[in-house]
C-alpha cells in the first residue's frame, strides 16, 4: 500500500476546503452550537440541583465526546461524498489506486477534520464553561480511541452502503449517530434502558466509554475490562466495515455500477 496515494486523497480534500468557506464552516458551526446549547443547559441544571452534582462535567463532557465521534464518522463520509457529488469514481478507480489506499485516504482526512473539531470544542468548553477535558484522567485516551475506531468503522460502512445503493441513499447516513445515541447511553446509565435496548447497547462500543466516563466523574474507578472489550469490539467493526466496502466495490465493478454512477442510480 502506498501512503503517497492515500495522501493524495487527503490533499484533494484540502484543496476543496481551501477554496470553499462552505466546506470549512461546518467544522466549527455545529460543534459550536452544541457546546453553547448543552453548556448553558448543564450550567442551569447544576444550579438548580443538589450540591455535588456537576452537570458540566457529566452532560457537557458526554456531548463533547459524542460530537467527536460524529465528526470522525462524517469526516470519512464527507470525503467520500465529494467523489459522489462530483461523479469522480470512474476517474479514481481507473487509476492504480487500491481500495485499501482509498480507505486509508478517507481515514487520514477524517483524522485531520475531527482533530480540528475536537480542538475547537475543547476551546469553547474550557473558555466558556470551565470544563477541563483532562480532568477525566487516563481514561480519556482509550475513550477517544474507541470512539475514533467506531466512528471510522461506521463511516466506511455508510460509504459502502451509498456505493451500493446510489447517491440518494446518502440521506440514510446523516441520522445514524442520532439512532445510535439512545442505545449507547450517552446521556444516562445503560441500566436506565429497557432490557432489549440494554442488549443492543452492549454490542455498541461507545456505551463502554460513557459508562466509564460517568464512573470517573462520580468519583469511581475505571473498569478496564469492559473498556478493553469495547476497543476490541470497535476494531472488529472496523475490519467488518472495510470488508463490506470492498464487497460493495467489487459488486459495482462486476455490474458496471461504477461507470453508471449518477443521481438516478437508486
Strand content: under 5%
Structural class: mainly alpha
Alpha carbon gyration radius: 20 Å
Helix fraction by DSSP (H/I, runs of at least 4):
over 70%
Q: How many beta-strand elements?
A: 0
Question: Briefly, what is this?
Answer:
This protein is mainly α.
Note the topology:
Elements lengths: L2 H16 L2 H4 L1 H23 L6 H31 L3 H5 L5 H31 L10 H26 L10 H9 L10 H7 L4 H12 L6 H32 L1 H4 L6
What distinguishing features does this structure have?
globular; mainly alpha; 12 helices; 266 residues
Task: Give a verbal description of the structure.
It is a single chain. The protein is an all-alpha fold. It has one domain. 75% of the residues lie in helices and 0% in strands. It contains twelve helices and no strands. It has helices at residues 3-18, 21-24, 26-48, 55-85, 89-93, 99-129, 140-165, 176-184, 195-201, 206-217, 224-255, 257-260. Helix 3 (26-48) crosses helix 6 and helix 4 runs antiparallel to helix 6 (99-129). The chain is globular and about 65 Å long. The protein starts with a helix and ends in a 6-residue tail after the last helix.
Amino acid at each position: 500500500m502506498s501512503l503517497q496515494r492515500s495522501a493524495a486523497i487527503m490533499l484533494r480534500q484540502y484543496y476543496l476546503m481551501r477554496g470553499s468557506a462552505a466546506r470549512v464552516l461546518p467544522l466549527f458551526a455545529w460543534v459550536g452550537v452544541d457546546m453553547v446549547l448543552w453548556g448553558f443547559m448543564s450550567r442551569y441544571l447544576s444550579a438548580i440541583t443538589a450540591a455535588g452534582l456537576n452537570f458540566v462535567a457529566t452532560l457537557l463532557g458526554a456531548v463533547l465526546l459524542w460530537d467527536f465521534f460524529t465528526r470522525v464518522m462524517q469526516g470519512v463520509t464527507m470525503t467520500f461524498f465529494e467523489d459522489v457529488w462530483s461523479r469522480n469514481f470512474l476517474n479514481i478507480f481507473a487509476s492504480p489506486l487500491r481500495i485499501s489506499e482509498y480507505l486509508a485516504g478517507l481515514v487520514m482526512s477524517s483524522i485531520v477534520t475531527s482533530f480540528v473539531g475536537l480542538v475547537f470544542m475543547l476551546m469553547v468548553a474550557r473558555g466558556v464553561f470551565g470544563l477541563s477535558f483532562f480532568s477525566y484522567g487516563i481514561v480519556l485516551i482509550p475513550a477517544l480511541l474507541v470512539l475514533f475506531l467506531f466512528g471510522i468503522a461506521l463511516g466506511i460502512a455508510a460509504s459502502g452502503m451509498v456505493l451500493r445503493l446510489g447517491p440518494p441513499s446518502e440521506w440514510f447516513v446523516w441520522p445514524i449517530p442520532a439512532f445510535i445515541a439512545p442505545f449507547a447511553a450517552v446521556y444516562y446509565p445503560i441500566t436506565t434502558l429497557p432490557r432489549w435496548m440494554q442488549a443492543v447497547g452492549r454490542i455498541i462500543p461507545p456505551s463502554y466509554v460513557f459508562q466509564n466516563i460517568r464512573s470517573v466523574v462520580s468519583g469511581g474507578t475505571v473498569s478496564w475490562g469492559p473498556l478493553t472489550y469495547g476497543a476490541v469490539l470497535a476494531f472488529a467493526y472496523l475490519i467488518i466495515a472495510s470488508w463490506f466496502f470492498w464487497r460493495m466495490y467489487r459488486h459495482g465493478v462486476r455490474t458496471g455500477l461504477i461507470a453508471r454512477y449518477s443521481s438516478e442510480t437508486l
